[in-house]
């Protein structure tokens, strides 16, 4: 799952400014999920 967001971070350079906001939010949510998963485990 982390690899997916890592690819999103790389791909962000080639996206439109409008997509940057969406990817930024998606990455932020992904990090929250990963942090919660680490705390749960």
Characterize the structure shown.
- The two termini are 16 Å apart.
- The chain is mainly alpha-helical and 41 residues long.
- The protein has one domain.
- The chain is built from two helices and no strands.
- 0% of the residues are buried.
- Helix 1 (2-11) runs antiparallel to helix 2.
What is shown here, in short?
This protein is mostly helical and 41 residues long.
Question: What structural category do the secondary elements indicate?
Answer: mainly alpha
**What fraction of the residues are assigned to beta strands by DSSP?**
under 5%
How many β-strand runs?
A: 0
Shape descriptor:
elongated
Report the major sheet. Answer: none
The topology string of helices and strands comes to HH
**Helix share bin:** over 70%
Q: Supply the number of helical segments.
A: 2
**Number of spatially distinct domains:** 1
User: How confident overall, as mean pLDDT?
Assistant: 72
Jot down its keywords.
single chain; 41 residues; mainly alpha; 2 helices; 83% helix; 0% strand; elongated
Please render the helix and strand layout as text.
Elements: H1 2-11, H2 17-40
Helix pairs in contact: 1-2
């Amino acid at each position: 799952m982390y690899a997916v967001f890592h690819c999103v971070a790389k791909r962000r350079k080639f996206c439109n400014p409008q997509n940057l906001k969406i990817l930024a939010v998606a990455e932020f949510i992904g990090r929250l999920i990963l942090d919660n998963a680490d705390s749960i485990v």
